[in-house]
Amino acid sequence: MILAVAGGKGGVGKTTLAYNVAAALDAVVVDADLGMADLPGGRGPDLHDVLAGEADPIETLRAGPVDIVPCGRTLAGARAADLRRLESAVAAIERERGAVVLDCPAGRRADAGVPLAVADACLLVVSPRAFALADAIRTRELARELDAGLVGCAVNRVTEEPPTDAIADTLGAPASVVPADPRVGRSVAEERPVVNAARDSAAAKAVRELARRVPR
């Protein structure tokens, strides 16, 4: 199973949710944002190297509370990366580990569309702000065009109860509220997924609810 975590624009908390949903699914999370990597890096080969034909995908696996395939952070690495290699790279990781979560770039550029095309399913991350819904709708349409079935929508960093029924109706998928919680915001940098660090928190319960929507 390959799940794409996508958002219509940057800054909606897509990376933190990709990391935490991967923890709930016991999956590998792949940083597929070739130009704006956010997941922790480390020594050794990364996704840029794989897409340049210079490393095997399995070499890039970085063990941790959530196993990560980091992406490079250099402009030269991004330029050398050939997105046509992404499908075979992710398939190799899926064969090795069984479940993969792709942290996708924001927007509708080609580098955002390719991870969606590789995925079996898509989770859409949405800001609770009303004006952000239009960006989410455009990403949903892209996912539909690429046959990445939309399994759910995460309304992220919520401080006041949003109109989830209206959002679900607009996007055509169940909407789950992920409350604002600083532990989620710190989870990637500290490598402490909230489903482990704060198992009984509302945010952890929301993440597990999102994970249950993903087909196995």
UniProtKB/TrEMBL annotation:
Task: List the GO terms this entry assigns under cellular component, sorted alphabetically.
Answer: cytoplasmic side of plasma membrane; cytosol
Q: Keywords on this record?
A: Cell cycle, Cell division
Q: Which domain of life is it from?
A: Archaea
**PANTHER family, per this entry?**
ATPASE INVOLVED IN CHROMOSOME PARTITIONING, PARA_MIND FAMILY, SEPTUM SITE-DETERMINING PROTEIN MIND HOMOLOG, CHLOROPLASTIC-RELATED
Question: SUPFAM superfamilies, alphabetically?
Answer: P-loop containing nucleoside triphosphate hydrolases
User: Pfam families from the xrefs?
Assistant: CbiA (PF01656)
Q: Return one Gene Ontology term, BP aspect.
A: cell division
Q: What is this protein called?
A: Cell division inhibitor MinD-like (Chromosome partitioning ATPase)
- Record-annotated CobQ/CobB/MinD/ParA nucleotide binding domain positions: 3-194
Gene Ontology MF term list: ATP binding; ATP hydrolysis activity
